[in-house]
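Input.
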Amino acid sequence: MLWFRRAQVVFVLVGVLVPTLCCDWLKRYTDLSDRCLSLLRDLGGPITNKEFPLPFPRKLYQQVKKSKAACKVTFVRNNLGHILDLYEQVNVSKVGWDADNLEELLIVVHRQKAELSACISPAKMEGCFSKELRHYYGSLTNATLNGTEGSSASWELIRSETKMHLQKLHLLVAAM
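Output.
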């Protein structure tokens, strides 16, 4: 009977720890994160310092920072998914960005998202602040792209905001 209890404990620990703490890929996340930031910087001219029409969700990041590792990984993965969804709407010729850099940026972000997906159980992919993220990115789209027909100025604001998100996600993963 004692061996059965030990086996249960081991299975529970493996089920909880392997997807998050033992995900070797997290060690390489920062390399790809650095690459994303570099590609984002090289898309066009200097990143704007113009004030964004929507406040950055600092409180949300603070809440995530206090959560469990699995929730952090889910948050990072979902955030990258929203960034992908957003940038798949860009009209490169209208915005004047380097199309090759944008394509590589999307490939790297997609790889990060896919690798993080392998670290989380499918049941958790929609949890951990996903509602708040959906609301934020919906508001971001409404505040910038809707009504401007995807103007270059709107995309430059989004690029600036994306830089802040990528930096915060980088710090979040580095602290795990």
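The first helix runs from residue 2 to 17.
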